[in-house]
Amino acid sequence: MELTRRSTQRAQMIFVLLGLLGSLLRGAESFDYTAINCRKHTASLKDFGGVGDGKTSNTKAFRSAIASLSKFQNDGGSQLFVPPGRWLTGSFNLTSHFTLYLHKDAVILASQDLSEYPVIGPLPSYGRGKDLPGGRYISLIFGTQLTDVIITGDMGTINGQGAWWWQRYKTALQHNRPYLIEIMNSDQVQITNLKLIDSPSWHIHPVYSSNILIKGLTIIAPPASPNTDGINPDSCTNVRIEDCNIVSGDDCVSVKSGWDQYGVAFGKPAKHIIIRRLTCTSPNNAVLTIGSEMSGGIQDVRVEDIVAIRTESAVRMKTALGRGGYVKDIFIRRMTMKTMRWAFLMTGNYSTHPNNNYNRKALPVIDGISFSDMVGDNVKIAGQLDGIKGTPFTGICISNVTLNMLPTSKFAPWTCSDVTGSTNGVSPKPCSNLPAQAAKKCPFPTDILPIDRIQLKKCSIIAKL
C-alpha cells in the first residue's frame, strides 16, 4: 500500500516537472517569490487582451482576468502575472486566494479617466472624505471582504500619476481622491517587493483588516505632494511593516482608527502593530504619526530600527477635544535622526473635525508612550509636547536619547504643557514635567505577536514575457 502511494506521488511529481519543462521550452520563464500562500493556477494579463504600450486602457483586461481567476478560490487559488510593459488602467478589484505579481519591468499606470473609477461611500469610521464631504473615487487597486490576497513582484512599479490629481483636488474634483492600494474588511494580506510612486493620495491603506504583512517596498512621492502618506494602517489588527524606503509628501507611516463621533461609534481599534527597519524622508511631515484620527483607539504599536533623514518630525502624535478614543502602549526604540525640525511632537489641539456634530466632551486618553535608545544630529527642537488642559498626556517615558542641536537654532530645546512622565539619560535636558529618574529605563515588549510568527513559502510563476 505504501509502495503504491509513493509510486503515485513520484508519477505526479514527474508529470508536474514535465509540464514545467514544456512551458519553459515554449518560451515561458519561471519567477520565484515568497508568500503567505502559493497558487495552483496562473494566467498572464496578455491572455485577456492586455496591451502594455502605456496608452491603451487595460481596465477591461484586469477586471476580466481577475473575474475569470476568481473561480479558482476554492481550487488552490490563482495568480495573475503582469509582464514587462506599461499597463494603463483604471480601478480594479482583487479576489480571495489570489496573487497579483508584477515583473521587474512591469509598470501599472493609473488612468486619469474619472469614468474608470467608480464612486463609493465614505468610510463609516470617518463619516466623510478627507478632501470633501461625501464619497470617494475607489482606489486604483481595491479589495474588500477578502481572505488571503497578495500583491507582490520583483520590484515592479505601480505609478499613480498623482500630479494630475494633486492639481485638481481642491477645485475640479467632485469626490475625494483615490488611494493607490486599499484593502478593506480582509484577513491575510501581503504587499511586498514593489515600487509605488506618486499616488493621488495615500499609497497603501489597509482598513478594518487583520494579519497584514507589508515588506520590501520603495514608496516615492515629491515632498510638496498633498496627503501622499506612505502606509496608513487604519483600524487594523496584527500588522507588520518592515524593510521599506519611503520618501513622502506627508507622513511616512500613520496609524489611525476613525474620526471623532464616527470613529467612536464604529469602535474598531488599531492594535498589535510592528514597524521596523524603515528609512524615511518627509521634509514637511513625520516618519511616524499616531492620529489624528484615533477615535476608535490605538494600542500596542512597536517601532524599532528607524532612520529618519531630512524629516520635519520623527514621531508625531495628534489628537484634540472631541476625538475620544485612546492612544496607549506605544513603544519606540533605536531611531537615528538626521536633520530634523522636531524629534518629538505631540499635540492635543489638532482640531480638524468631520463636521460640527462631534461631542465636545469626548476626551482622548494618551498614556504609556515610550522612547528609548535614539540619537539625532542637526535637530532644531528636541521636543514640543502639548497635552490637553485638564486631561494631560500621561506615562511618557524617554531614556537614553541624545540629540545634537543645530548650532544656529534659536528655539528652546524643549517645551511642554499638560504632560507627565519621566526621563533618564536624555540630552539636552527635558522639561521639568518630565523629571529625571536615575534607574528608569523605558519598556519595550518581549512577547512575540502572531504576525511575527508567520512563515513565508517559496512560490513560483511560469509565464511568457
From TrEMBL:
Domain of life from the UniProt record: Eukaryota
Gene3D superfamilies, per database record: Single-stranded right-handed beta-helix, Pectin lyase-like (2.160.20.10)
Keyword Zinc: no
Signal peptide segment: 1-30
InterPro entries attached to this UniProt entry: GH28_Enzymes, Glyco_hydro_28, Pectin_lyas_fold, Pectin_lyase_fold/virulence
Transmembrane parts of this sequence: none
SUPFAM superfamilies associated with the record: Pectin lyase-like (SSF51126)
UniProt entry tagged with the keyword Hydrolase: yes
Keyword set, alphabetical order: Glycosidase, Hydrolase, Signal
Protein family membership: Belongs to the glycosyl hydrolase 28 family.
Name of the featured protein: Polygalacturonase
Organism of derivation: Papaver nudicaule (Iceland poppy)
